[in-house]
Write a structure and sequence with these properties.
- It catalyses: Hydrolysis of proteins in presence of ATP.
- Belongs to the peptidase S16 family.
- It comes from Marinococcus luteus.
- One of its GO terms (molecular function) is serine-type endopeptidase activity.
- The protein is an alpha/beta fold.
- It folds into 4 domains: about 110 residues, Helicase, Ruva Protein, domain 3, CATH 1.10.8; about 160 residues, Rossmann fold, CATH 3.40.50; about 180 residues; about 240 residues, Ribosomal Protein S5, domain 2, CATH 3.30.230.
- The protein has 26 helices and 27 strands.
- Strands 20-21-19-18-23-26-27 form a 7-stranded mixed beta sheet, sandwiched between helices. Strands 7-10-13-1-14 form a 5-stranded parallel beta sheet. Strands 3-2-6 form a 3-stranded antiparallel beta sheet, with helices on one face.
- Helix 24 links the parallel strand 26 and strand 27.
- The two termini are about 45 Å apart.
Length: about 800
Amino acid sequence: MQTAEMRCKLPVSALAERCDPRMFSFHTTKELTDRTQGMIGQERAVKAMEMGLDIQDENYHMFLTGASGLGKTTYARRKATEAAEKRQVPADWIYTYSFEDPRRPKVMSIPAGMAEPFAKDIKELIEDLQEEIASTLRSKSFERKKVSMAEKHEKVINEHWEKLEEEAAAKGFALEKTEEDIVAVPLKEDGEAHSDESYNELSKSRQDYIMEESQTITRQVNDFLRQQQVAKRILRRQLREADEQMVQTSIQGFISTLKDEYVNEGLHKFLSDMEKDVIQHWQEFLPAKETQEGRPAVSGFSFCRYEINILVNNSGNSGAPVVYESHPTYVNLFGKVEIGRNGGSPTDFSHIRGGALHRANGGFLILHAAELMSHPFAWKALKRAMRLGHIRLETPYEDSDIFASTYLEPEPVPFQAKVLLVGTNALYQKLQKEDETFRKLFKVKVDFTTTMERTKENIWQYATFLACFCDNKRLRPLTSEAVARLIDYSTREAGHQRKLSVKFHEVTSLLIEADYWAGQKQSAIIEQEHVHAALKETNYRSAQPEAAIHEAIEDGTINIATSGEKIGQINALVVAHTGDYSFGYPTRVTARTYAGSGGIVNIDRESQLTGAFHTKGLHTLTSYLQAEFASDRPLPLAASITFEQSYHLVDGDSASSTELYALLSSLAEVPLRQDIAVTGAVNQFGDVQAIGEVNEKIEGFYYVCKKQGLTKTQGVIIPTQNIKHLMLRNEIRRAVEAGDFHIWAVNTVKEGMEILMSEHAGEVGENGFYASNTVYGNVQQRLMEMAEKHQE
């Protein structure tokens, strides 16, 4: 009968899936003529992307989810650009001065490409008007017209005055002008003014007459003065109206020309409002020394009020915009109102600056979700803009670079764009669960996978991708052998013999370094040896922690035995992660068993050095032992188990089978082989289950054995389900092929026991007992003895 050790041993062919370079019809990738660059291995995501880009509904925004390094952002930008090219160029957006309420600047959309020339023409118009108005108002004909108007006014006033003087003279009075007033002076018969003496000599009746007539004349004089003031106001108004009429006549041609050139209702309205304002403020267009009566300019007046603030300029664009904002703060998304240097001076519409939402209007906006979530005000404002359909400039007090402006309330800009968020699946699930608005707005999930099937077609697509990458980065072409090795590397990164990793940045990083090593060897092409050199050097740069552990094992600081046998002691395998590098190494697990009822005590757990998954695995062991050996009575067992010399958190259940072997060895008092390391989870029925990072674990034990000396008996026991995940390095495969190292794959704990103990595990008989000459028979007998002692 074949032993479990022989039956479960894996052949070298099972240890990796190698890509045969002979499948390629090229010598180097330079010969590949197909340079199409589709999204490889992401059929589900591609279909979702196409649908999301085509649907125009305002609630069908997109969330691209998946692991980092899959090219989600690059793909989103490329596909959005392709979709944008099929769309019309959206309108330009401008802000203009509000002549009705300067605090509320007006926003306007005008045809694409119109904003820039219109703004330029307005600037030129202002200069032209300054010159034209000054020239018109200085013209001799207009000056003569105003002089004539003033003379007519003066003539009427003089006539009224002369008439008043005649009437006063007829009554014996003369009108005398003083600095402050006009006085009616009574006259003697000789025409001279009365002195006090002469006046006193007059009769009482004459004095009364003079007094009465003086009052009458004074009233007439006052009426004249009032009429004179009214007449002056009328003259000023007439002169002003004449000025305004003259200004209007002089600028109408300029305004009409622009209206004819820019056929747009909004611009026509602005030009009409501007015309009225220019006429109203025509004096501001004169040089300071020529302003009427030397008056200063109107406070706060600036010619900037007529200029155009271009918020979005789509001139020169083809298709809709695609905007990628890598730093989505509120300011970068929504823009801001710039303020004076002193931090508190009033501002105006010309200081409004647009953000990514304005630039993306009518097109596509791509953002990283995690970055966006780190700016809560920006995220809330974005959702509000998407929901309400307009961009309103607000005051995000949490943003220190924004002044809490109270001066402007710009009109909101209508907003219509497709928003693409790029993030992790965990963030997507969180938002789906907690954010109702997110659920309503982002209805298209574009889910990117990390692997694809390792088919012949996909391998060829991979080769084409590598060829394109070499072209784009100006790298040397790859030989077919080098491509095959990169395919194998991709398979290892995928963690499955029938898969390829689509984390292309991992492969392309290796490719760039392989090109470097080809250059070091002065090679015109990248060969297989250059890929190996790149991988070796990449690992070497990051392997300092691994080297330190190997050194500690080699000098005995960490106790690891790779030969001999020991009861209750076994080599488990763990994996350490150092950011960009992972490596496996063995760690000793020991178990002690006693009579009692305390159950299994995990020393690491009691020391708070284990996680929840490891605790779950420990409970599974207890359940297995109870069901297998004490299904009809309490388990009479007290046991302790620990990872020796482990001072870091232990989590996961991949060592649960290892711990079970140690417990069974202690109970059966049968030693375990120390030249074998074990990995694998176990369920309540004793089935060994798959674990992660199987390659790193095997290689970790192999290198320790190699340091201590290969004995041709050493090896690793893994779950059968992990065979398909094997992509071991060439050195390990060669060692297995030479018989220097071995790998066994087991389905059950019993198979593993037979390999580790070189004894039959045993089968339960009809009487419910195992044979006494088996491992499980020894365990059962030991537990019965413990039960008896416990009862005593």
